[in-house]
Specification:
Helices cover 58% and strands 0% of the residues. The protein is mainly alpha-helical and 81 residues long.
């Protein structure tokens, strides 16, 4: 499941942030990505919640600064990624 979940996350990130999947690494950060502004963050969280059938807490949403943070948060909610 890990590879499928990772692929789904990469696809979601690429779609919402208007990036090529090859550009997406765990180090990709909000502060260095033009489309990952506050509105982009809300859109990304909405897509991630829908894709993985989870509801993230406000604290978790605010703590996500990188793709690695997002993966760590998803693991906390039981997603095998």
């Amino acid at each position: 499941m890990t590879r499928l979940a990772d692929s789904k996350l990469r696809n979601t990130l690429a779609k919402v942030l208007l990036l090529d999947e090859a550009e997406i690494t765990d180090e990709l950060a909000r502060n260095g990505t033009e489309a990952w502004d506050s509105l982009g963050h809300l859109m990304l969280i909405s897509e991630v919640e829908s894709t993985f059938q989870v509801t993230l807490s406000d604290d978790d949403i605010l703590a996500i600064k990188t793709v690695g943070d997002l993966k760590k948060t998803l693991r906390k909610y039981g997603v095998d990624i």
